[in-house]
Amino acid sequence: MHVLVAPDKFKGSLPAVGVAEAIARALTDHGHTVELCPIADGGDGTVDAAVAAGFERRALTAAGPTGEPVATSFARSGDTAVVELADVCGLVRLPGGVLEPYTSSTRGLGEVVRAALDAGAGRIVLGLGGSASTDGGAGLAQALGAVLRDADGRELPPGTGGGGLPAVVTAERPPRLGATIEVACDVDNPLLGEHGAAAVYGPQKGAGPDDVEALDAALAHWAEVVGPDLAEVPGAGAAGGAGFGLMSLLDARLRPGFDLVADLLGFDERLARADLVVTGEGRLDAQTLRGKGPAGVAARARAAGVEVLAVAGRVDLDAAELAAAGIVGTAALLDLEPDLDRAQAHAAELVTRAVDQLLRATR
């Protein structure tokens, strides 16, 4: 058979490209031909997935979440550039892993977008996952030319974090970018309230109950200054409110993350050549079914009449849930190595073994 290998990353142990290569080793040992198509849904690994699909990587230095310079990159093909928040100002970029809920910003994301524009991009595909900040997109807007002023008319410094939003009295939009921005976004949270950016995602960024309340109030003020009509749009609360800022100040369009990335990678054309698909991610669970990569792969494959197998570190879905999603067989690394630390350390080897067993069981 010709097999399309389309896994997401195993977070904390193996990037999507590494997972795909490990799956491919088992498939070729069984005599199958393979086509690798590592996937992403807008979070970390989105640029890597584009590079694996033939995009050119462009390296640069930009501001990390708390302003320190970090080495990052974007991907480019023709006039399309792929930019990833996680790799420049996401949680993984916090110095020493120290959470900074008030001062972290999206400034670096704007700097990478600017670099892509300067390189001639007319279309920006922007992945929002993994944010460290709750700044409503203020930092990225400033990096692209927005001017934020306080009550005394003074311009706020670049990289205004969520803690600085209450001081904003006026916000001048950035100059026209001369490019379209499409945002890969897999959450439907509004900007404010109990389901908003601060309440839902603030705690993972270091915000306690009082901080969540303060950041929600800061975002509410920011929305009043910038334009409250978009605060309730699904996805406005993505990446600490960066979804709101992108829509309000940059006229960006939010799209489901996997669908946007899959179209970018030519997934359907690759699927048309396949007799079987193998996908996977670190954990197959209820969150998978809410639009994450493997569910998207399975849905498209089922529509095309192609069977799907999946490998994961752990499988928490039952047979009925898997069948409903279009996945006909699964294998879990923790069934081969119950010790989590050892399983993560030897993920590539275990993925190959798991797929080998899965192929034998489904013959």
UniProtKB/TrEMBL annotation:
Pfam families, per database record: Gly_kinase
Protein name: Glycerate kinase
Family: Belongs to the glycerate kinase type-1 family.
Leader peptide range in chain numbering: none
Enzyme superclass (EC): transferase
Transmembrane regions listed in the UniProt entry: none
Keyword Kinase: yes
Organism: Actinomycetospora corticicola
The organism's taxonomic lineage, starting at the top: Bacteria, Bacillati, Actinomycetota, Actinomycetes, Pseudonocardiales
NCBIfam families per record: glycerate kinase
Enzyme Commission numbers on file: 2.7.1.31
InterPro entries in UniProt: Glyc_kinase_flavodox-like_fold, Glycerate_kinase, Glycerate_kinase_RE-like, Glycerate_kinase_sf
Presence of keyword Aminoacyl-tRNA synthetase: no
UniProtKB keywords: Kinase, Transferase
